[in-house]
Write the structure tokens for this entry.
Amino acid sequence: MVDFRSLRNAEAQSNLDFPIKESPSQTAGPYVHIGCLPNFVGVNGVYPKDLTINGALPDGDKITIKGFVYDGDGAIAKDIMIESWQANSAGDLKNGIWRRMPTDLETGEFKLETIMPGSVDGNSPYINLWIVARGINIGLNTRIYFEDNLDEKDMVWKHVPKERQFTLIAKRVEGGYKFDIRLQGSLEGEDETVFFDI
Amino acid sequence: MSNTNIRYTPRDRDWHPEPDFPEYRSTILRSPKQKLVVVPEMMADKTGPAFGQNVLGEFDNDMIVNFAQSGEKAIGEQIIVHGKIVDENGRAVPNTLVEVWQANAGGRYRHKNDNYQAPLDSNFGGCGRCVSDADGNYSFRTIKPGPYPWPNGGNDWRPAHIHFSIFGSGFSQRLISQMYFEGDPHIQICPIVHTIGDPRAVDQLTARLDMSNSKPLDILAYRFDIAIRGTNSTYFENKPEGN
């Protein structure tokens, strides 16, 4: 006999096993904007504005970082979402600055408007980036360092292969900094952006 | 004296999906060829943004109505999706932002790049969000998304799924994943699902029908628990503070 009384009220078992492991990642897909930047793609009226900042920009040197994200063919990726996290100008992460930005759907350019982070624990100032999109199965972590604000004694710097260090350095250009991201480099791999296992 | 230095459990890259998985065509040119560089965990990895209830609007957690005309509703099988967010140590993750997005009941996204022939639903936007409570529980209402075909070079169909974005408290806990539905035959045939090698890991992303939280003659429920990275405690003997 089927016990319908209990079936109708059955509690679901958890989908987590013991020992608990992190839920596996899956790609953010081509429509990540709907969930994370809906107004940007015309899904208007659900949220008053897209979640792109965690508060007003605090005091500090205002900087603008622009760049493109390239795939293994050198083509510009136009459906990427990037998030950034950094210290404020005093090197304080309790009041850190978070930003979320898309690459432009037409041009592929992204733009990060923030302030120059202060040094934390004596290391070079840097901005943490997290990159998700179609074709990226698990988010990629990288960092922006600044060519005019770089201390070679930085704790992380010595772990980065010398010939690839340049991929982490934003270059001074008129109006701010330029920082391009290469998801996949050429055969030699020197131009592939360094991604971290953090 | 010993100092306790908390760091996150390293990510199990064998449990997570394979970055380079040619059967999912988009990974071919978007997966790094070089090894990830292992570096000491720094404060900017262990800290991250906080978003409280104050970011939320009244209907953010109800995709059945949050895009609909006044008095109308999205078309589809109405469901509650709920669960608990924990870390790998089993500790509840309270006050963390959960963002979700999905296709409509016909498998179509409200996005200019989605050209699938299934119609849009004028009452369905496809995004929602909520914040976990003090015990790590979250909940939202939506309609069950439809499976759909996608351009991947062959006859490929996605299972019904809901995309999840989870913050946690540290930037290196940041996670995006997808929730599947128990019993969906498309799970087995999907290359994106199969980027995950271990069937137990796929099962972990599969929500269970939850009759105990359904409402008779009204709405069904699915339970989907989520785990984010936990912490290890490492003890350093006789080291001066700050090292």
